[in-house]
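Weekly structure sync - notes
Attendees: PM, LS, DV (DV joined late)
Agenda: review two folding runs queued last week.

Item 1: First target. Sequence and structure tokens pasted below for the record.
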Amino acid sequence: MYLELFKLHELPFRLSPDPQFLYLSKQHARAKAYMESTIWFTDGFVVITGEIGAGKTTLIETFLRELQTDAVVAQINQTQLSPTAFLQTVLVQFGFSPFQMKKPEVLATLNQFLVEQHIAGRKVLLIVDEAQNLTHRVLEEVRMLSGIETTKEKALRIILAGQPELNEKLNSPELVQLAQRVRLRFHLSVLSRTDTTSYIDHRLEVAGSQGRRIFAEDTYPVIFKYTGGTPRLINTLCDTSLMAAFGRDEDTVSLVDIEAAIKELQWGEFAGGTNTMQIPQMEHTLPATGGSSPTVGRILLASEGKTVVERELRPGRLVIGRTADNDLQIDSKFISRHHCQIVTQTDSCVIEDLNSTNGIYVQSKRVRRYNLNDGDVVQVGQHEIMYIDERAPHMRGGTDVAETEVIDKP
């Protein structure tokens, strides 16, 4: 193969969903944050849709790789199933052999398993990929599963991922009760022209390019023109182009190689890929403040695993506390009159404790000031605040120690 010629240690454009090669565009970072929110918020479930080859499966694999060890996961990829077969498949994922069970026994076993896991302190997650193939009857079973709960929270967290047809099914009159259970819904669009360039360079870097420019500058616009920014198509075209350059014994991919690859693949210019889908706003979303200032991020406020409110963050200050004079009121005896504030700038978002009685916590550590990263969850009294960054993707969990003031003892 071409690895030696291009001085790479592995193939950069394989079609298999390898988390190591995931490029977090703004769209992909947000979708991943939504998946991660299922661990913290137990009400309803999350739906991620995207065109074929948009990177949904790679996102799922990345999410699973980073999942906490106290989570029990059932991952369903074969979705052309009857309702009973679907439930049996879920049980198989949890380690059972249910094929001689009738449906009532399957449901009883599943219910008992979920309760036992909750008592043991484990979080149970069901991920269904290619969910657009589920029939209405199976989706109704999913709705019923989402209703299994203990005295305080839902026993099963659910992520549905699929092609855009999944949204059409969820919006059908027959599934209105299911649609009402959806807490977060996000459509994963294709990469922009800029992200397409970054995506290619990222995969080459992971494969060992060490910053060397393997694709000539003028090849990137052509690649975008023929792939529309669809990751799977980018992989196919780039891999074929590398083979073309290898055949000419050239260590740089030129327009000649791109054109040879396009001819071999018999592709025309990409005509689709523009996402004009509008996802309805959640009913509990509050109106944004701050005029025409750009949205920097959002927070989801939850109590006992249930989302209470969603709020956009624009440059400025948002004060959180118990009384009505706060920008965000949390009526709880565990919240101080003015408990904390979120200071938002165009390039950062910081949460600060306002000398509250019970403080604020990040990853079980009490902090005075914390620079928020995409997907962070802050404990405030008996409530949780999840931060979602709406800006360009960046490394998670990379907060500089100097930007965080930790209090050793509460």
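Item 2: Second target, run right after the first with the same settings.
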Amino acid sequence: MNDQLGGKVAIVTGGGRGIGRGIARRLAELGATVVVASRTAADLAETCDELRAAGTVEARACDVGDRNAARQLVRDVRAAHGAVDILVCSHGVYDAESPFLELSDEQWERTLGINLHGTFALAQEAGRSMVADGTAGRIVIISSINGLAAEPDCADYNTSKAGLHGLVQSIAYDLSPHGITANVIAPGWVRSPMSAPYLSEDILSGRQKFNLAGRVGEPADIAGAVAWLVDPATSYVTGTVIPVDGGQTAMLPMPGSVEG
């Protein structure tokens, strides 16, 4: 462990598993006090047990789909630790089996409520805390390349992720006078419990090439990008969407590669 982030307090939502857990691990290894948040107590307990050796990691149960609960999470962390220096929103829900004409109002509202509205509440409360404390904070939102181009049968997810890109640009603009940066990381396919049902053995083995890297991403790949963005030295990067997708968005489909 080094102390690149020594003395910093970080909140990582969606930290109970997958990408969020990988990010929490990396920030703890860099010396931050990391508060992981998730709806599921069992996932939180597992994360804390797994990351115990990495550094200081605490758990907070929170349903970020409840905007009041999301704001209270930030207030509680600030009250307990004196400040919030870093916010990483890595929570989200995804369902790739809902064609547009069959998408229900309930699913639309649930997806946007968690993925977009919950992120708004967290970022707003964290921004208020950072401004009040004079903290040159870092806000990082984990989006998806679905915010850059559409995937079939998940208009709710695609829209929520595209919305995050506009949100972060607005946050970056409005909070720039306070020295606060805000950025988006847009992952491609990453090995996680959420993506597991959609990753075939051909994809996992590399036999089916879908990006330039020729492999599925790992949570550590996203965590490395987060670590760079929250580094105190990375103050010149803000309002930016950074794809971390193995080059998937750099490719054009060839004839026969897209199913009709």
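Discussion on item 2: The radius of gyration is 18 Å.
Action: LS to circulate a short write-up before next sync.
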